[in-house]
Design goal:
Blueprint (H helix, E strand, L loop, with lengths): L34 H18 L6 H11 L1 H15 L8 H10 L5 H14 L3 E2 L2 E2 L1 H14 L2 H5 L3 H16 L3 H17 L25 H28 L11
Length: about 260
């Protein structure tokens, strides 16, 4: 991919794995010293998310309650996202996230979906040689909230941001069709909710300014993230369709 986009990628060495990140309240959580407790909490969270799947109208409220019950665990995952993943998809303002996390209402579909998406990005495919059950549970919960008709009826900025992160996750997992559908839906929701203000003379939306940015910049950053990701997903998606329709020849004969 780097060759196709003419980009040079630099990856962190395995010897420089960072220490466990601090939680949002500033205290450091040493996961290894509480291994059994973490496993129990993770299993309880997985069971809670799985049980909530049987709910109908109260599904979002159940998930929101689980986030509050397992706040410490969610705080660690969110801080991990902010420290190590946010720079690749810089669409969520950290200060506004902390403020909203401290004063958020009991239920908000957009914020719940955004929380799940940030946590999902931090989970690995495998945990000690086994499939990460929490990752699977987070993905199922996020997709149900994002694709819920009640959510799409009133798209909000946090909901659209959760879709961008979900599509990024799907793209990274090789789920090209799913990633393409998700990001196209984000584009539609962004247009319906007037995420950006059209400029005079149909000029393109200004690029986000570099450096420190605030909550007011979230909309434009999210809009540009959608455009860039949609173009990339579209390119990969249709390249894949063309390769299926016109597979390369198994052998090549040259006539001299």
């Amino acid at each position: 991919m780097g060759n196709r986009l003419l980009l040079k990628c630099h990856y962190a060495k395995a010897s420089s794995i960072p220490n466990p990140p601090p939680s949002l309240n500033g205290s450091t959580i040493t996961l290894k010293s509480h291994c059994d407790e973490v496993i129990d909490n993770t299993e309880a969270l997985v069971q809670g998310l799985t049980g909530a799947a049987t709910e109908d109208r109260s599904y979002c409220r159940r998930v929101s309650s689980l986030i509050e019950t397992h706040k410490q665990q969610f705080d660690v995952m969110i801080e991990t996202f902010c420290d190590f993943y946010h720079k690749w998809v810089p669409i969520v303002n950290r200060e506004s996230l902390r403020e909203y996390n401290a004063t958020r209402p009991d239920i908000c579909r957009g914020f719940v979906a955004l929380t799940l998406s940030m946590c999902l990005i931090t989970r690995t495919s495998m945990e000690e040689g086994k499939e990460d059950r929490l990752r699977v549970a987070l993905q199922v919960a996020l997709k149900r909230l994002f694709w819920d008709p009640d959510s799409m009826a009133e798209p909000t900025l946090p909901l659209i941001q959760s879709g961008v992160l979900l599509s990024t996750f799907e793209f990274g997992q090789g789920l090209n069709d799913a990633a393409y559908m998700t990001i196209c839906t984000c584009l539609s929701m962004a247009q319906v909710s007037a995420l950006f203000t059209p400029t005079m003379g149909n000029q393109p939306v200004p690029l986000p300014a570099p450096g420190i940015w605030t909550r007011q910049d979230e909309a434009s950053r999210t809009w540009w993230a959608i455009l860039i990701h949609e173009r990339l997903a579209c390119h990969i998606h249709f390249d894949f369709l063309l390769s299926k329709k016109n597979p390369p020849p198994s052998s090549l004969t040259l006539r001299l």
